[in-house]
Design brief:
Elements lengths: L4 E8 L2 H13 L5 E14 L2 E15 H14 L7 E6 L4 H10 L2
Antiparallel strand pairs: 1-3, 1-4, 2-3
Length: 106
């Protein structure tokens, strides 16, 4: 049974951008919490070429009901032409944590 909360995984070009947009999403009440996880090496195919980029991985915690709104907002303000914004369901979490997340987002 799903907890009703999700993590939204996104990578950013810089820690500054990740922090700024993370704070913005919490202030807009689209996320209860944001974890800026740190540097990641991304290897991907883009416009026919294999590329490598140093990025910063970030997890946004929100409700399942707000995930689509958060994902849309992140896509609008992100800065990448095609940001990878993925939603990961949280199957199990302690009830007080689930309640806290729900209380923090709109």
């Amino acid at each position: 049974m799903s907890s009703g909360i999700v993590s939204v995984y996104v990578t950013f070009a810089t820690a500054e951008n990740a922090t700024r947009l993370g704070r913005q999403m919490v202030e807009e009440r689209l996320a209860a919490c944001v974890n800026v996880l740190g540097p990641a090496l991304s290897i991907y195919r883009w416009q026919g070429k294999v590329e490598e980029a140093n990025e910063v991985a970030v997890l946004f915690k929100t409700t399942a009901g707000c995930a689509e709104i958060l994902a849309k907002r992140l896509t609008e303000v992100h800065g990448y032409e095609n940001p990878a914004v993925t939603v990961w369901p949280i199957e199990h979490a302690p009830a007080p944590y689930v309640q806290w997340v729900r209380a923090q987002v709109r």
